[in-house]
Design a protein that fits this description.
Blueprint (H helix, E strand, L loop, with lengths): L15 H7 L3 E5 L2 H10 L4 E3 L7 H9 L4 E4 L5 H5 L1 H6 L8 E4 L15 H8 L1 H6 L3 E2 H11 L4 H13 L4 H15 L3 H15 L1
Helix pairs in contact: 2-6, 8-9, 9-10, 9-11
Length: 203
């Protein structure tokens, strides 16, 4: 519970100790306890559960401090899980040194909403097939969603700046800037000026 003096969900991740023992910079984040259990039983060595409605800033800082720099989010594929993706991604905004990706699990239409989680998916398809799924970057996920919702291009560009700032590599920033300019029609110079402005304000 929220008043438990030793266990605060917002600060910890279920199963994290196993991922630490794996000594890797990669980790998969899922929603619940059973998702972790099913993946570990299938042979996954670096997976942990958020056990809440959204990843928190404290959890992101914990992961970064422990050396996890490649974080993949695999949420439930039901309507609620997909709707919560923005909440999860918001915890990673403007945090440098972490690369965030997303695995979208696909289920047949006859699968009930309550069964569209990593636990059931792994039991049906196995871990090897899970690792073969192409992951989306947080940048791609958010950009595609905003374009689909027909948000005005200038507003899209402003919202996507945070995802560019999260990249620690100047080469990756330049690549994302180029893609954002191509997809929105906003000049690269204008996007770069906005990035510089936010960086200077932060400093």
């Amino acid at each position: 519970g929220t008043k438990n003096p030793t266990y605060h969900k917002s600060q910890f991740l279920y199963g994290l100790y196993r991922a630490i023992e794996a000594k890797t910079s990669k980790i998969d984040l899922v929603e619940g306890y059973t998702d972790v259990i099913a993946m570990v039983q299938a042979g996954h060595t670096h997976v942990a559960a958020v056990c809440g409605t959204a990843v928190t800033k404290q959890q992101v800082q914990l992961l970064r401090n422990l050396g996890f720099t490649n974080i993949n989010i695999t949420l439930d594929a039901d309507d609620a899980g997909i709707a919560n993706m923005d909440k999860h991604l918001s915890a990673f905004k403007s945090i440098q040194g972490i690369r965030t990706t997303i695995t979208v699990l696909e289920f047949d239409e006859e699968v009930a909403q309550e069964d569209r989680d990593p636990c059931c998916w792994i039991q049906m398809h196995g871990l090897a097939e899970y690792f073969e799924i192409k992951r989306k970057t947080a940048f791609d996920w958010q950009l595609e969603k905003l374009i689909f919702k027909k948000v005005a291009y200038p507003d899209i560009a402003k919202q996507m700046i945070d995802y560019i700032l999260a990249e620690s590599s100047a080469i990756d920033r330049e690549s994302l800037t180029k893609e954002l300019s191509s997809r929105t029609g906003i000049s690269r110079d204008a996007i770069q000026k906005e990035i510089n402005s936010r960086t200077n304000n932060s400093v």
